Structures are given as C-alpha cells and as structure tokens.
Amino acid sequence: MNTIITVLLFLIPVFLLLTKRKRSPQRVPPGSLGLPLIGQSLGLLRAMRSNTAEEWLRKRIRKYGPISKMRLFGKPAVFIYGQAANKFVFASDSSNIVNQQVKSVSSILGDRCILELTGEDHKRVRDALVTFLKPESLKQYVGKMDEEVRNHLEMHWHGKQQVTVLPLMKTLTFNIICSLLFGVERGTRRDKLANDFRYMIEGMWSVPVNLPFTRYNRSLQASARAQKLLKVLIGEKRVDLEKGASPRQDLITCLLSIRNEKDEQVISEKEIIHNVMLIMVAGYDTSSVLLTFLLRLFANYPTIYAAVLQEQDEIARRKPNGELLTWEDLAKMKYTWKVAMETLRMFPPIFGGFRKVVKDIEYGGYFIPKDWLIFWVTGITQMDDTIFPEPSKFNPSRFENPASLPPYCFIPFGGGPRICPGYEFARIETLVSIHYLITRFTWKLLCSDNSFSRDPMPVPTKGLPVQISPRKLP
Questions:
Q1: What is this structure's pTM?
Q2: Any idea which positions bind heme (predicted)?
C-alpha cells in the first residue's frame, strides 16, 4: 500500500504538469491589449499629433522589448520594427501574412484596393496598375505634368508676396493626379473630389466609431460621395473607349481597356474605383508632404539649396525659349533626387502600416494568433544609427549608391515585391515641381519653428508660411 501511495504521489504532480503545459496558451508577445475597441489607439494618435510617436514606441520597446502586443483601431496587433521586421512584412508570402488595413482605412478606401488584396488578386490588380505607372509608360506624360506645374505657379504663386506651402502643394499634387491619372480637368467636379478627399484622409487613422460628428463618420460619408462620382466618371470613360478614344489617355481608360484572352475586362469596376481612391489619397498626401519638407529644408540648409539650384539652373539654361521638361532632363537631376531621398528618410510621409496574420505563426520567439494585425513603422529603422551613422544629420550622400544600403532599411515606398507601384510617378512629380519652384522663386521662412505634427501625415507648423520673391534665371 505504501508503495502504491508513493507512486501516486509521484505521478499526480507529473500528470498535472503535463496537463498544464498542454492547456496553457503559447507565449504571446508582452504588453497589454487595453480597453476593447480603443486599446492604445488614442495614445498613439495623441503622440503622432505631438510628433512624439517614435518616442512613444521607444518607451514600449524599453518596457517590453522589440516585440509587443497592443490594440489599435479595434483590432489586436503586434508591433515590430527593424530590418528583419520590414523584410518579414514586405517579403513574406500570403501563407503567413496578408494585406489588411485597420477598419478605418479599409472602410474608407474600399476592400478591393491593393492594400486589402492578397495572392493572385493582388498580383492581377498590381500588374494592371503597373501597366500605366511603369517608367516606359510615364515618359510620355512628363510634358503634361510640366504644364500642370506651370499653370499652378501662375495661378497660386506669381504676384504673391506670401504663401502657405503645404495646402498649395496639396492643391498641386491633386491637380496633377486628376489630370494625368483620371482625366478630370479643372472645374466643379475636380473641386468636389478635392473636398471629399480632404475629409476622407482626416478619418483614415481613427477609432472606427460610426457616430455623427466623428472624424470616422465624416470620412465614410466623403468616401461614399467620391465613389459615386468616380462611378459616373468610369461610365463616361467606357463610352469614350467605345467611340475609339485612346486607352492610354489616363489610368482609368487604361484599366478599362485591359482584357484577358476571352476578351473579358480584367479589373472590375469596383476594383477600379477602390484603387483610384487609394492612388489619389497616396499621391495627394505623400508627394505634397515631400515637396513641403524639401522647401523647408532648402531654407535651412543653404549649401544643399545651392547645389540643387545649380543642377536645376543648368537644365533651365538649355531651354532659353521655355521648352517643356523631358524624360532626359529628369535623368540629369541626380543630386536633387538624393536630397529628396534623404528627406524621405528623416521625414517619412507614411508613419507605418498593417498586415494581417492568416494563421497562427511564430515570430521572434513569440506566438502571434491568427487574425491579429502586424503593425510596422518606418521612422525607427530609418533613424537607426547602426544603419545610418549620425541619423539626425541631413546627408544626401547616403544615397550616392542606393544599392549599397542594406535591404529593407529604407522603406518610404515599401520594399521587395510590395514596393509602391506609384514610386516612379512620385519621382517625376517631385522633380518637375522642384525644378520650377527653385528656378522661379526664392523664399524665406516666416515661422522659425521646425517642428511638425502627424495627422496622420507630417504637418509643419502653420503649414509652412513663406515669403516669396520671383527669381530670374542667371
């Protein structure tokens, strides 16, 4: 009997230990999910608006380590950062993680944009967009973009003594997108679209509570109005194509004209609308932010300003009769683009983004449950002194040879197979705009405060008011 009792006393704790191990959950990242729906959303948004978001995240890193869990905009998420994290986000196949934005973004932009699509759907739609946005196709639109920039300066800059840069850059980039990508010329329709897109962007990173007077509610209403207008526009473009219009006149007609071997339209009307919304939002905000921060930078760094001006003046002198810029001219703007790249490194327009876990996975020694989000950020990696020495120093020579940079460390346009299809369009837009701004005007900052907030894009103090003067080519 004593022997049996002794054996039982030994086996019972072993059984309990094994049972406990079997039933205990796997090791999820440290941290707190916080309150349902809200979680850490308000804390992150407050930090972004006070330009302390990177420090807010660094505090989490110091407290929990490089991987931590939180709840953002209604969904449980895991925050990761660094080169390995960026590679995991941008290079993983759809068997582990897929595109999926938080509810506020997906509800406003639509569930058929490439930020939401996965697998073959993502490839199909992305390939269609690249058909129009690849360099070989965009070459023919440099002249038209040139005309848009000149018209903008004539309307909004010439004859003025003072302007506020950011809203004007948003007007410029929106007009370029409307003209080149969607064939919407100046007038009431373009003005309505511009107004709706401003409201849409305000609510894209917000707590998804659909109550009257909330940002989210206003953005949803603006999205519905914009989609209705775009649907009418697509119908008009379809009629134009049937009458023999060129399928290359803008992005919408290009997408409508792409057909498979069965002569079926490859991209659905809903996919066209949702991806037009995405491209318009992306181009409207990201390029305007880059141009604004470039102008502020030129005012603060006279040596860099002088080098860019010299490069642009040399191109302008070859056009004594005011000829339009060409693709070959853009190829000579090498230093200007290095300055733009360094600006994107220090002031990335996109703070971060999300992916969705499609099955239980392990990352960095932790278990991440199915349907959780992966939250990644750009700025922490791009300001890492082990990757970019003296990261707070503005140094365009870092991009003397971009191929020498470690992969997945500089990601303003994403990376790997998920690099932004609009990258080349943004480059052309930036270079053409800077050429005319810097050769035709000089400016002086009217606000000495060099800080900025995020809402969710960077916004310099007071929108960057400047005093301007016309400049003659020497």
A1: 0.86
A2: 420
